[in-house]
Amino acid sequence: MTDSAALLNKHSFVELGARQRAKALLDDGTFRELLDPFQRVMSPWLLRQGVVPQSDDGVVIAKGSLDGLPVVIAAIEGAFQGGSLGEVGGAKIAGALELAAEDNRKGIPTRAVLLLETGGVRLQEANLGLAAIAEIHSAIVDLRQYQPVVGVVAGSVGCFGGMSIAAGLCSYLLVTREARLGLNGPQVIEQEAGLDEYDSRDRPFIWSLTGGEQRFATGLVDRYAADDVTQIRQQVGQLLHLGVPVQHRSGQAELFLRRLARLDTDVQIEPAAVRQLYQGERP
Amino acid sequence: METLSFEFPAGQPPRGRALVGCVGSGDLEVLIEPGLAGKLTIQMQTSVNGSEQRWQHLFARMFDGQTPPALSIDIHDFGATPGVVRLRLEQGFEEIGHD
Amino acid sequence: MSAYSLRGLRWFEALSGDASAVQGLPASLKVADVRLGEQTVRLLAVVADPDNRFPRARNGEVGLLEGWGLAKAVDDAIDADRDATHKRALIAIVDVPSQAYGRREEALGIHQALAGAADSYARARLAGHPVIGLLVGKAMSGAFLAHGYQANRLIALRDPGVMVHAMGKASAARVTLRSVEELEALAASVPPMAYDIDSFASLGLLWETLSVEQIEQPCASDLARVTDCLQQAINDVATAPRDLRSRLGATHRAASSTVRQLLSAQW
Fold first, then answer.
1. Neighbours of C (≥3 Cβ pairs closer than 8 A)?
2. Fewer CB within 10 Å of terminal CB in chain A, N or C?
3. Helix, strand or coil for residue B2?
4. Are strands A172-175 and C131-140 parallel, antiparallel or unpaired?
5. Residue A62: per-residue pLDDT
6. pLDDT on residue A25
């Protein structure tokens, strides 16, 4: 295929909303949404605060097949409240993962794919968002016993807060260049630690530490894909076909403690130092 | 934030339903479903207070001189401009029209 | 007065008595195996280490070393008890002001370190270890997700210094573009936004709330009351499912149950 033909055939994944992303990943004709927007299962907490709710509370749950494998996809809509999770959206994700695990206990090999476009807890629902995220963590660890849980962080919101911990629990992670994956939002770090420590307006700086390319180069994610629906779909399918990894990244405490022990913490950290320290092996 | 409702004379209900947009800053989510014959009803939550007249004019202009289908429309608006509102509604009507 | 809380340390010391601390872990972690009545339990606490190699984690925050260190301490218990008929309980003594905020932390993947801790605690619970969270101070955000929130049962002491939340008031106000006063007013009518432990209890996530006399440095009767409650919690877990479903059911979490019912019906 010529370059221009390839260019014309590229379809941006990042520009798609959550529902479109889920549809784009699932095999044609297999997309079936649960608790769809017309059912209007919305946040019980937003109206009383003068915040306009969204009919699906910013989370799309869809079942279908992906490269022939039965999956449930949970897709977070980054455009609604920064993709932050409240009670209902969080319960949709946790509940879907719980049911997928139940499926496996009954011999149905349902996998899960999480499309993570989120700032973490929705502060308007604070403790119910946080509790839901703890339940999401629990459900990922449970399902992971049977099937891989694949996380995709594509941008432009990225994956932060308690859901970055969920990403860290995934069996495999796929990111794009636009993606960021980090625990704390840049503004909060700047507020807490000062401008010298973290300049929240310095975009190249932020991506150099938490951007998709760096996370891939440091072995903290498994795949680095172009912003293209076909490529992302292919890679997610490949990851699902790999099955449960021999060891999850989140189970490698001793390895990471050894690495951190070698680090000179007297100097400020540089992206190259992390790459050197964490040079991971690719499956 | 305000909750508003509007009603217009309409024809027959369509067969399908449509969802367009999302509740992002400067955008709106529109759910369009078949309504009771003869009426087009709009229920909305909007983040912009004091905008009832503006919405009334916008809808009146959209349906002026035609009989729209009987629809039940839910809008969750987060400060969309009239241009964006018209775009989303037209996207929704087009989706309905294709059923 | 130190800039950091000592409650976690004091409760760890009181509960561990003269049991020796587990070696080979970061100095910001206190871990010990003790007898609680008839059972062996492993106590785990995150405490301030003013000499932490990571300068942004010197006040009791859960950072890189704490996340991976907790994971290791829990993994070691899982491995040691793998073939045992009785799996020791894990008691997370929770007094954590936040996760660590810093350049090193983000660069080195603090999100992954906290995932390590959450992973180990969850796996321990699934393997049959009773996991109990004892909240004696702050239980904030990512720190609590890593240390305590995977517990089968959560016990909180009743005190203004015991608080669970996703973000401190000042930061939350800034992020939501409100004043702290507006936030507090909202919290009065929106229970999940409130900072006090009684509002948190109304969400149905706690198994028990206890009052003690000397929360900063427990006296003998405080210790007896808490020990008794811990034993009851451990016994309660023994015949219960190993998931977190006991956290569902409060009126304020009705939607959480409805969503699950609908998902199941539409599955």
1. A
2. N
3. strand
4. unpaired
5. 98
6. 98
- Residues C103, A197: C-beta atoms closer than 8 Å: yes
Q: What is the four-CA torsion angle of A206, A212, A218, A224, rounded to 10 degrees?
A: -170
Whose CA is closest to A80, among A62, A55, A105? A55
No. of helices (H) and no. of strands (E), chain C: 10, 7
Nearest to B22 among A17, A50, A51 (CB): A17
Query: On the CB side of A37, how many CA atoms lie within 13 Å of its CA?
Result: 27
Taking the CA of residue B42 as centre, how many other CA atoms within 13 Å lie in the half-sphere pointing to its CB?
A: 24
ipTM: 0.98
For A38, phi and psi rounded to 5 degrees? -70, -15
Which two structure tokens, joined as six digits, stand for A38? 């017309």
List all residues 6 or more positions away from B81 whose beta carbon is below 8 Å from its beta carbon: B26
Contact C115 A165 (CB under 8 A): yes
- Residue C213 is predicted with a pLDDT of 98
- Pairing, β A69-76 against β A59-66: antiparallel
Report yes or no: A50 at the B interface, CB cutoff 8 Å: yes
Q: Are A253 and C120 in contact (CB under 8 A)?
A: yes
> CB-CB: which of C175, C190, C194 is closest to A49?
C190
Q: Which spans in A52-125 are helix H?
A: 87-105
d(CA B97, CA A175) in angstroms, rounded, equals 38
Could you list the beta-strand ranges (E) of chain A: 32-34, 59-66, 69-76, 111-115, 149-153, 172-175, 223-224
The rounded distance, in Å, linking the Cα atoms of C95 and C60 is 8
Angle formed by the axes of helices C64-80 and A253-261, to 10°? 140
| A65 vs A72: CA distance, rounded Å | 8
The DSSP bridge partners found for residue A113 are A73, A150
* Nearest chain A residue (CA) to B77: A52
What does the block give as tokens for C97? 């002001």
Helices (H) and strands (E) in chain A, counts: 11, 7
Bin C12: left if φ > 0, else alpha if -120 < ψ < 50, else beta: alpha
pTM across the whole model: 0.97
Closest residue in A to C195 (Cα) is: A127
Distance CA C191, CA C50 (A): 35
Residue written as tokens 């520009």?
Answer: A15
Residue A146: predicted pLDDT = 98
Q: What is the DSSP letter of C18?
A: T
Residues whose CB is less than 8 angstroms from the CB of residue A6 and which lie 6 or more positions away in sequence, other chains included = none
Q: A14 to chain C nearest CA, in Å?
A: 23
Partner-chain residue, chosen from C72, C164, C254, that has the shortest CB–CB distance to A254: C72
Cα–Cα distance list, C62 to A36, C97, C102 (Å): 38, 8, 12
A79 at B interface, C-beta within 8 A: yes
Single out the residue of C190, C201, C200, C93 nearest to residue C144, CA to CA.
C93
- For chain A, the 3-state helix, strand and coil shares in percent, each to the nearest 5, are 45, 15, 40
pLDDT tens digit sequence for A60-72: 999 999 999 999 9
pLDDT in tens, C120-163: 999 999 999 999 999 999 999 999 999 999 999 999 999 999 99
Q: Tell me: pLDDT of C114 over 80.
A: yes
Interface touch A77/B47, C-beta < 8 Å: no
